[in-house]
Every structure is written in structure tokens, then in C-alpha cells.
Design a protein that fits this description.
The complex is a heterodimer of chains A (207) and B (295).
Chain A (H helix, E strand, L loop, with lengths): L7 E2 L3 H25 L13 H26 L7 H8 L1 H5 L14 H24 L8 H31 L4 H5 L2 E2 L1 H7 L1 H8 L3
Antiparallel strand pairs in A: 1-2
Chain B lengths: L7 E4 L15 E6 L8 H10 L24 E10 L2 E10 L7 H5 L6 E4 L4 E3 L9 H5 L6 E2 L6 E2 L5 H5 L5 H5 L5 E5 H17 L6 E3 L9 E5 L19 H6 L3 H23 L6 H12 L1
Parallel strand pairs in B: 2-11
Antiparallel strand pairs in B: 1-5, 2-9, 3-4, 5-6, 7-8, 10-11
The chains are: A mainly alpha (207), B alpha+beta (295).
Chain lengths: 207, 295
């Protein structure tokens, strides 16, 4: 569906589908994982048909997420390589969060915050996937010392990742006109010029 | 409630008070390793009372049979040959749940009521609440719980909580022909053990002693050992068992801290939006693009 033919394409359909498969898996994993993490949240297992079902499903959903995260990683990794201007942007992000983005350095398709988030999420995914396999008692039997290390890594990395996703989601809500990029793929030229001027220039050839 | 006549001291994944108006005596099973003849009557009695039949295994050249604890083997005689004081000694230890005062399994368990500790000290698994995650195995410092391959629930010795609830001794204690397994109030068992240890010392075992490891707050299954200074001689009985620091961190401070941090992030985001407002595209840019579109 075309709204304004001059809108800029930010994500194609397959990138969007990939993102949402990972996103849905993440939500299901966070809900079931938090249920195992804290007694106050244990009732969340009822969303999955009870404690045993949650225990059975959680790791398989994790496998699906890991596979689609790897695909997404290769789609976006080269666009997220960090350089000097990204660190410059990050050093000034406090002012922007405070409501003044006039001094922010110009950004390409992704700003320094998005890039840093990409790499932190990737790190979390690696830690969570590896430790998750070690904890998967119904499939594997690793030495107990390794499992004990894995449970700590799994819980810490997952809690951190949930926090990162909160930031990711909030940044998308806060920056108006952003969510549509992941829903139907396009953003307005005004949005692009304001938030990602380098990318705007590259897409339109205008300054 | 599993056993109406027993109070509950602790319940897995439960943050509120457990039912505990009654007062029950703290019990203990005392296993006098020096009086054990390795007949396995305790193993047979355990199978019979609890109606569990482990698969018949193969002879692999040692007396241990089966080779390890499993979902249907809740107690197991472990045989070790060692040389102490220039003599061959055949050490036989009845392995099984130690019923820790501070149970690592219960601390690790995420499922409310799957593991409970009665106020008499018995730590019991309630398989109907077990979700099969195996966290209890991760938490246990004695390597005791086993996940069943058939139903994926965790099993271990119950110290015959059903028998104890009606004033009976555990099946293994009842069956032991030499009196190597005794059962009663923990206080009485400690007292009885002292006499046994004195006797062993008289007979030349200078390091005889009681195994009631304080790292887990003491246990409700205790051993009289001739070499209490070297518990690892007895098929790797841990010297100073305690809940692993990793498990303590994971199921201790990490829980409230992580939830607090996540809650703060979520609420902080909402308040940021409310106080600073959204990051909108500027009117000038929108007007500029509209002018372009009109061309």
C-alpha cells in the first residue's frame, strides 16, 4: 500500500517480517523466562498453558529466536559498524533526551545509540543462547558447575536484554513517526531529514 | 497441603508465610557407616515402600547396583576401597538426600510448592507441582535429585515423609539389620552418635566424628564416619557442602534487583514521555516537504 509515493522506504517486507518474528519470540521468552525467575511473576506461566508447558516451550521458542536473530544480524550488521561520529553522538545523547537535539551530529541510517543497541543485543543473544543450551535439562546433561555458571549468565544477560528492549521500544514510541518504518516500511522525508540527515541525503540526493 | 499432620517451614517459590501453627520435633536419620555391612536391605526397603522398581542393570565389576541414583533409586549403597593407616578399608556409604536445613534445591526451584520443607526438617518433592526444569539439580550441593526420563519430574528420597507423618521410622531404618540406620529426634540422634564416636575412638579411629555439615545449616540425614576429617573418602561425600555462590546470587539478590531495575526503566520511560514530551518532526521540515510535494 502506497501512502505518499515520495515517502522513503526504510525496511522491505522481508526485513520487517524477520524483525517481528524475533520480536514475538522475545515477548514470549521474556514472559515465560521472568516467570521462572521470580515467584511473583510465576503466574505468567498460565499464558503458556501452565508451568510445565512454559518449561517445554521456552527453549524451543529460544531456538526460533536465535535462528531468526542470526539472519537479522547478517542483514543489518554492516549498517551498524561504529565510527567516530557515533561515539560523538552518544556522548551528546543526554542533551537530546533532555529535549534539545539541535547540537546532535548528523547521522546516517542509524544513529550511535541504535548501533550500540544492535551490538549489545547481539552480545546478549550470544550469551543467552549458549547458556540456555547448557541449562536445557530435558535435552542436554552438562556438568553441574557449568550449569551453575550458565544460570547466572542467562538470568543476568536476559534481564539486561529486557532492559535494552524497553529502551528500544520506548525510543521508537518517543520518536514520533518511527514505528511505521517497522510496520509498513516507510518513513516521511521530513522524519528522515530530521533524525537521519545523512541517510536522507543518500536516499534523495538532496541536502 | 500434602500431609495434614506436618507443618511446613519453607515452600519453593513462595514469598508469603507457610502454614506453621503446630510444633513438630526436628527429626534426623543417623547412618552409622562403621556399622553398615552393605547388605542393601535399605535399598530394597526403599523400593518396596515407595513402590519404585529401577531397571535391572549389568554387573560392571563393582558392588554398586544400580551404578547411580536415578528417578527410581532414591537411596544407593556406594562402595569405596581405600587404604588408611596401612590397612585396606572397605567403606560403604548409603547415599541419598541429606535433607539440608538450608536446601539448595528448594532455593533454586521456580515452581510454587514443588519442593517443601516440613518443620520437622524433611525436604519433600511434590511432583504434581514440578515443572521439570531441573533447577533443583543445579541447586543441590550433594548431586541428589534426578529427572525422570519418562515424565520429566524430579525425584529423590522423601525420608518417608508419609511414614514419619504417622509416627513410623523411614523404611530403610526399619529394614536395617545391624542398626546402622537410626531415626528419631535430631537431638537424640546427635546424642546417640556421640556414644558411637567415643566407641570408634577407643577402637583406634582418632578422627571419628559426626557429619552434620553446617555449610547447609546442618542436615537431617547425618553420618557417623570413622574418618570424619576426610569425608571425600566415602564416595566423594563433600567436605564442606554449601549452596553454590552462583545459585545463591541467582536466586538471591539478583531477583529483586533485576525486577527493580526493569521496573525503574519502564516507569522512567513513561515519566520521560510525560515530562519531556515526544520527539516530533519539526513544523519547518514538514512545511518544507509539503512545499516540495505541491510542486
Amino acid at each position: 500500500m502506497i501512502r505518499n509515493p515520495r515517502d522513503l522506504q526504510r525496511y522491505n517486507a522481508s526485513e520487517r517480517a524477520n524483525h517481528w518474528i524475533v520480536g514475538i519470540c522475545f515477548i514470549l521468552l521474556a514472559l515465560s523466562g521472568l516467570a521462572f525467575f521470580h515467584p511473583a511473576l510465576f503466574p505468567l506461566v498460565n499464558l503458556f498453558g501452565g508451568g510445565t508447558w512454559a518449561r517445554i516451550l521456552h527453549p524451543w521458542i529460544g531456538v526460533v529466536m536465535a535462528v531468526f536473530f542470526v539472519i537479522m544480524f547478517f542483514r543489518f550488521a554492516s549498517l551498524n559498524l561504529m565510527g567516530g561520529k557515533d561515539w560523538d553522538w552518544l556522548s551528546k545523547v543526554g542533551k537530546m533526551v533532555d529535549g534539545n537535539d539541535h547540537d546532535m551530529p548528523e547521522q546516517g541510517k542509524y544513529n550511535g545509540g541504535q548501533k550500540l543497541l544492535f551490538w549489545l543485543l547481539t552480545l546478549c543473544m550470544v550469551l543467552i543462547t549458549v547458556s540456555g543450551v547448557v541449562m536445557w535439562r530435558s535435552q542436554f546433561d552438562f556438568p553441574v558447575g557449568l550449569v551453575r555458571a550458565a544460570v547466572v549468565v542467562h538470568a543476568a544477560a536476559a534481564a539486561f536484554m529486557i532492559g535494552l528492549i524497553f529502551v528500544h521500544v520506548y525510543a521508537a514510541i518517543w520518536t514520533r513517526g518511527t514505528i511505521r518504518a517497522m510496520l509498513y516500511g516507510t518513513v516521511t522525508r521530513a522524519w528522515a531529514k530530521q533524525h537521519h540527515r545523512g541517510w536522507y541525503r543518500q536516499m534523495t540526493g538532496k541536502d | 497441603m500434602a500431609l495434614q499432620s506436618l507443618d511446613i517451614a519453607r515452600r519453593s517459590a513462595t514469598t508469603t508465610e507457610t502454614p506453621k501453627v503446630r510444633e513438630t520435633t526436628e527429626v534426623a536419620k543417623l547412618i552409622d557407616v562403621s556399622a553398615c555391612i552393605g547388605c542393601k536391605a535399605c535399598q530394597a526397603a526403599c523400593m518396596e515402600w515407595n513402590d519404585i522398581r529401577p531397571e535391572v542393570g549389568n554387573n560392571v565389576g563393582i558392588y554398586d547396583n544400580p551404578q547411580d541414583l536415578d528417578d527410581k533409586t532414591w537411596t544407593l549403597m556406594r562402595f569405596t576401597e581405600v587404604e588408611e593407616n596401612g590397612r585396606l578399608e572397605w567403606l560403604i556409604r548409603k547415599d541419598g538426600c541429606m535433607h539440608c536445613a538450608d536446601p539448595g534445591c528448594l532455593k533454586a526451584c521456580p515452581s510454587p510448592g514443588a519442593i517443601i520443607q516440613y518443620s520437622n526438617g524433611i525436604v519433600d518433592f511434590h511432583q504434581e507441582n514440578c515443572i521439570g526444569c531441573g533447577y533443583c539439580i543445579t541447586g543441590c550441593p550433594f548431586d541428589i535429585p534426578r529427572l525422570s526420563k519418562t515424565d520429566n519430574k524430579a525425584y529423590k528420597c522423601s525420608l518417608c515423609s508419609d511414614r514419619v507423618a504417622v509416627g513410623q521410622a523411614p523404611a530403610c531404618a526399619k529394614a536395617c539389620p545391624t542398626g546402622a540406620i537410626r531415626f528419631g529426634a535430631k537431638e537424640d540422634m546427635v546424642h546417640y552418635a556421640e556414644a558411637r564416636i567415643d566407641d570408634l575412638k577407643d577402637r583406634g579411629y582418632q578422627n571419628a566424628g559426626l557429619y552434620d555439615p553446617q555449610g547447609v545449616g546442618g542436615t537431617h540425614v547425618m553420618y557417623v564416619l570413622h574418618h570424619a576429617d576426610k569425608p571425600t573418602l566415602y564416595a566423594d561425600l563433600p567436605e564442606n557442602p554449601q549452596i553454590s555462590p552462583a545459585v545463591a546470587l541467582w536466586k538471591g539478590v539478583a531477583k529483586p534487583l533485576a525486577l527493580l531495575a526493569l521496573g525503574a526503566t519502564a516507569i522512567g520511560s513513561l515519566f520521560h514521555y510525560v515530562m519531556k514530551g515526544p520527539n516530533e518532526v519539526s513544523k519547518e521540515l514538514e512545511a518544507e516537504m509539503e512545499k516540495e510535494d505541491a510542486k
